[in-house]
């Protein structure tokens, strides 16, 4: 089995189909539907727990992920 076949729900397998070694393949293979769902649950949990706005909850929950994936994307696609 190829490493790509082990994560069938990754964005690379579902949408982009980049081969090993192509720019951005590792980034797209690391982001999948399960991580998207966990981010939704994280935002929802922070929203319910803190009783603050949706904007605050999204920024508070997703800022580390956005920064990390943003830096990774700049390196992967340059």
Give your account of this protein's structure.
- The chain has 78 residues and is mainly alpha-helical.
- 68% of the residues lie in helices and 0% in strands.
- It is built from 4 helices and no strands.
- The two termini are 29 Å apart.
The number of helices is 4
Radius of gyration: 15 Å
What would the average pLDDT be, to the nearest integer?
92
Structural class: mainly alpha
Q: What general outline do the C-alpha atoms trace?
A: elongated
Order of helices and strands: HHHH
- Residue stretches low in confidence (pLDDT < 50, at least 5 long) are none
Report the sheet-strand fraction: under 5%
Give helix % range: 55-70%
- Largest sheet data: none
Total number of β-strand segments? 0
Q: N-to-C terminal Cα separation, in Å? A: 29 Å
Helices and strands, with pairings:
Layout (H helix, E strand, L loop, with lengths): L10 H6 L8 H6 L2 H18 L3 H23 L2
């Amino acid at each position: 089995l190829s490493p790509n076949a082990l994560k069938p729900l990754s964005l690379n397998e579902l949408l982009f189909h980049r081969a090993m070694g192509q720019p951005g393949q590792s980034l797209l293979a690391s982001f999948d539907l399960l991580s998207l769902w966990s981010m939704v649950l994280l935002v929802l949990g922070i929203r319910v727990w803190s009783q603050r706005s949706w904007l605050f909850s999204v920024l508070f929950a997703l800022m580390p992920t956005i920064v990390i994936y943003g830096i990774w994307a700049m390196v992967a696609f340059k």
